[in-house]
Here is the input.
Amino acid sequence: MDLQEAETGERRPETLGEEVFGRILELIYSTELAPGMVVNESVLATRFGVSRGPVREAIRRLQGIQLVSREPFLRARVVSLSAQAILELFQMREALEGYACRLAAQRMSEAEIDALIADLEAAHSGQPPPEAARFDFHERVVRASGNNRIIDSLCGDLYHLLRIYRRISGAVPERKELAFTEHWQILRAIKMRDGALAESLMRSHVERAGRHVLAQVPETPSPAATDAEKRAS
Amino acid sequence: MDLQEAETGERRPETLGEEVFGRILELIYSTELAPGMVVNESVLATRFGVSRGPVREAIRRLQGIQLVSREPFLRARVVSLSAQAILELFQMREALEGYACRLAAQRMSEAEIDALIADLEAAHSGQPPPEAARFDFHERVVRASGNNRIIDSLCGDLYHLLRIYRRISGAVPERKELAFTEHWQILRAIKMRDGALAESLMRSHVERAGRHVLAQVPETPSPAATDAEKRAS
DNA sequence: TCCTTCAAAACTGTTGACACATTTTCAACC
DNA sequence: GGTTGAAAATGTGTCAACAGTTTTGAAGGA
Here is the structure.
C-alpha cells in the first residue's frame, strides 16, 4: 500500500502531496469519505504510508477548493452541502457557464462547432461509451470559451463539488432525453452565432438541472455527520 | 520582528500559517514582492522568525488563490499577469458581478437600496473618507446578491488579483467621474427591479474598467522578472 | 569566444518529534 | 441522578534535520 512503490512507471517526479491529494479525492468520490465525515491527518498518513506533511498539504488544498471545511484547531470534515449551498453552487454555474457559452458562440470555428454537434449526436444515439472517453457536453463548451480562468474555475474547483452530487441525479432516462434536447438547442444557437441566445439557453438548462438536484436532496443538513463518527474509529 | 511577540493583544488563537499568509499578502501589495519575483520559503521564514512549515503553508494558500504560480520543484513566483490573463480576469468579473447584480435587484429591500444610494452619493460629494471605512460600490453590490459562493469568489480570490492592478488605474479624475455615473445608473436599474438591465449595465461598466486597465498595461509580460532576481539575493 | 560537462550550492520535498489546543473520560460533588 | 471540573486522550500546529531536485558557475574542450 506504500505510495512510493506504487509509482513504478517512470514519469516526471510528482510530489507525494499531489499523489495524496488525488487519493483523498478518490476516497471522497467513492463515499468512503462521505460528506460530514472527519478527515484525520494521522489516519490517512499511516494508511498511505507517508508522513503527515504531504497529507496535511493535500487537505489544505482540498480546503482551498472548498471540498473540506475546517477552522484552526478543529477537525477537518468533508463538506456537506445544504440546500442553500447547492442552490448557490448552481447559480454560480449559471453565471459562469452562461458567459462561457456566449464566448464560445463568438470564438468557435465552424469546424469545431460541427465536430461538437457530431460528438453530441454520436454520444446520444450510440451505446454508452467506454467511460474513459466519456462525452461531457458542458466541459466541451466551457473549454471552447477560451477563457482559462473560467475554465479552471468550472472544470477544477466547482466540478469536484458537482461530481459529488451528480451521482444523485444521474441515470434518470427522461431527464437524459430532455438534457439532449437542450444541449442540441444550445449548439444550434452557437452555430447561428447568437451569443445572447446561447447564454440564455445555457442558463435555463443549468437552472433546470439545479432544480432537479435540489428536488432529490430535499432535507439533509448533514446526513453522514452522526454515523460518520462511528465509522471513523 | 518576531511574530509571536508582535501578537500582544489577546484574541482567539490564530495559527502562524494564517499570520504569515497575511504578511506575505502585504508584501505583495506593497510591491516589495512585485509580480515575477521569487518567493523563497527559507528567506521569508527567517524574516518572520518562524520555521519553514507555516511559510510553506501560506505560500500554498497563495497558490490556491492564484497569486503565486509554481510547479513541483521549481521556485514559486508572484504571478505576473499577461494582457491576455487580465482580459480573462475581467471577463470572469463581468460574468460573476453581472449575475450578482441581477440577484441584488431581486433580493435587496427598498431600505437597503436607498441606503446604498445615499452612501454612493455621500462618497462622491464628500471628501475622501478616512480610508478605513472606504466605500466600495462593487463589494456592496456583490454582498447584496446573497450568494455566498459568488461573494467569496469575488471578494476573496479575484479581489486580491484586482487589487494588484487597481493601483495602476486608480486616481484618474475623469475615469472617477464616469464610474460614478455608471454606478448611479446601475443602482437606478436595481431600484426599478430591472435585473436584466442592471446586469447589462454592470457588465458594460466592468468591461470598460477592464479596457482601461489594459490600456495602462499594454505590454509587460514579466516586467520585474529580470531585476527581481537581483533584489531577491 | 562559445559551448559542453560536471560538481557544488541553493532550494524544495519529506520526515519524525515535540508543543499546544480541543475533546473526551471519569470521578467527586451537589 | 445529574452536574461540574480536572486529567487523560486525541488531534492539530510547529519545528529542525535530512533527502532529492534544480540551478549555478567554473573548468575543460572545440
Notes: The longest strand of chain B covers residues 76-78. The CA atoms of residues 153 and 159 of chain B lie 8 Å apart.
